[in-house]
Design goal:
The chain is α/β, with parallel strands linked by helices. It contains 12 helices and 12 strands. The strands form 3 sheets. Strands 1-2-3-7-6 form a 5-stranded mixed beta sheet.
Length: 317
């Protein structure tokens, strides 16, 4: 783009600067993965299915949305997609205070008590042709989200008011959103935005078999007896991988730091209870059979919607 001029980078903040006419803004770096991401990522059958659906949506030039409980790995799936496509991933975190201008470019304080223009992750990914995930989309005010409409339809453009420029998204730009369904009640998204974020792909809690694989991969220092005791203690409850890893890891650390050397499944469950209290983890919600059926039906409904959407093959205007 001829009106953009890269004028250097800030080594301390790792921000690259661009100049548009007489205004200078900083582009944020992509979000980085943990060094052990590839070693700890577990691709279950369901996650492979989700990744295949996401890739199909992008091939059709759609902007999908991942819906599900918090901590089940929605952004992890996005990073996995970035790995597969060899693209950088930019995460834009929404909040109830997100302003319309911040969707493209906002104002940030500097260390010398001044202010500077800082482009958003959405703006940067669109400019560079990389992947952007709008995380916690459900938290943002509807009026602010209206700024996304032109980027997510055939115009593929984004207006930055503070820079007084409208950029055209790079042809290789890919985007998606993530919504925590347990935080979205009473905060409906604007219909015109929902129509542009299709298909909706459901990401649910892992089954205990998959959770066991995740715990083994992420906690190699924990003996199998601990994992078996964890799954036995919480056999009628559901955990997100994030909470399960933290809870079991913390319980094991409490044991290693204590004076008790003899351990059995009963003692392990006691350490798990102590870890729950110490981490202030609320008791996982019980999910009896009728709840499992409800979750299964929800997943099937999302899958059916995806299939119908793919067969319809229409582009949102």
């Amino acid at each position: 783009m001829e009106y953009l001029e890269i004028i250097g980078d800030d080594k301390f903040l790792n921000y690259e600067c661009i100049k548009i006419d007489d205004k200078v803004a900083k582009l944020p770096p992509p979000d980085e993965l943990d060094e052990d991401f590839d070693e700890t990522f577990v691709e279950t059958g369901r996650e492979k299915e989700i990744i295949d659906q996401a890739l199909a949506a992008w091939r059709a030039n759609y902007h999908f949305v991942l819906k599900g409980p918090s901590g089940v790995g929605k952004t992890t799936i996005v990073f996995r997609l970035g790995r597969l496509l060899k693209k950088d991933v930019y995460i834009f975190n929404g909040s109830d205070s997100t302003q319309a201008d911040e969707i493209a470019c906002g104002v940030a304080p500097t260390n010398d008590h001044n202010f500077e223009l800082r482009a958003s992750e959405i703006f940067t990914a669109a400019l560079r042709g990389q992947i952007c995930c709008f995380d916690d989309l459900q938290k943002c005010p509807g009026k602010s989200l209206a700024r996304l409409n032109s980027l997510l339809d055939r115009r593929r453009s984004l207006y930055a008011a503070l820079l007084n420029v409208r950029i055209k998204a790079h042809k290789e730009f890919l985007s998606c959103a993530a919504i925590n369904e347990d935080e979205s009640l009473g905060n409906e998204l604007p219909k015109d935005l929902v129509d542009r974020l299709l298909p909706a792909i459901y990401v649910g809690y892992p089954c205990h078999k998959d959770l066991e694989k995740i715990l083994i991969k992420n906690l190699p220092e924990v003996e199998n007896m601990w994992i078996e005791a964890f799954l036995e203690k919480y056999r009628d409850q559901k955990f997100s991988p994030r909470i399960a890893i933290k809870l079991l890891g913390y319980a094991n650390t409490l044991y290693n730091n204590g004076i008790c050397r003899k351990i059995d499944r009963g003692k392990i469950k006691e350490y798990l209870s102590k870890a729950e209290q110490g981490m202030s983890i609320s008791k996982p919600s019980q999910q009896p059979d009728h709840k499992e059926d409800e979750i299964k039906k929800k997943k099937e409904r999302y899958d059916e919607d995806f299939l119908l959407f793919a067969q319809k093959g229409e582009t949102v205007h």
